[in-house]
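Re: weekly structure request thread

Next one in the queue (351 aa):
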Amino acid sequence: MKWENQDGKTDIKSLTFAQLQEELAALGEKPFRAQQLYQWMHEKMVRDYDDMSNLPRKLREDLQGHFSYTSLRPVEVQESRLDGTKKFLFALEDGNVVESVWMRYRHGNSVCISSQVGCRMGCRFCASTLGGLVRGLRPSEMLDQIYAISLLTGERVSNVVVMGTGEPLDNYDGLLRFLGMLTDEKGLHISARNVTVSTCGLVPEMRRLAQEKLQITLALSLHAATNEKRRELMPIANRYTIQELTEACRYYFEQTGRRITFEYSLVGGVNDGREDARRLAALAAPLRCHVNLIPVNPIKERDYVQSETGRIQAFKNLLEKNGINVTIRREMGRDIDGACGQLRRSYMQEG
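Done, posted below.
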């Protein structure tokens, strides 16, 4: 598959190495030029054809005429005074904007990227979905969030989380190409085990992804342990039941050997009680899941509030007593627009 920009030009940064070889051969170029070009784009992460100093001028002009070149431009950058987390708002060539987050951990630097412009999943506590879905991102636009942040921070990225704006599995083909290029030894060569993809629970796509047998971590945004409560929080729960989800999780583990992570946003007075914790433990135990508890980020368009600290700890303790491996997500960038969709939404409202 090939991707095009709004002008109908083939997106060169979304081509696999094999496809790039074919395109350059069609232009009459020698095979080694594909290696040089791919290296400029995906190892050296240059921002323009003109930066590719060992390519002949004629070739650079031909490339400019035939192919679009994705190079994201930061329009806003926020930096947390608390922990150094940086949030970037990037402009796309069609005028849309997407956001990404850079976080420093002891084990290395992590980048959380977006997979779509907007989102159509409608989760009640998420700012990403408030404006609906505009379009899926091309593989190059997902990759270049990482490339641009690497260049802007001057630091290597070792972990990638596809958990920003959008539902990654709703952009399945783009996601799969992105994952292949991200982990390719000819590119950044980030280990698949250092990549996490989040989903709100698109069951057919979860099963399809399982068959790829990738070594990535799949994180399921569960957020409730009963169908009734999940439907209140997540419209996708009207399409797929928790039983269907757990069967898909079991299938994913069988196919890949990779355990699933349950993402669980704790909303005060909604899904943070003792019975909620017991039900969650009963779901997670047979699947040997890891549970990641997330104190919800309040957004002004909704009346959900974050659970109290003591209630969060009690929830965690009850899960642990039931043998569940559980963590509480460290809150990063709390003093900036750190939650998914907040920075993009505020930018659009100002515009």
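The longest strand covers residues 97-105. The CA atoms of residues 266 and 295 lie 5 Å apart.
Next request, please.
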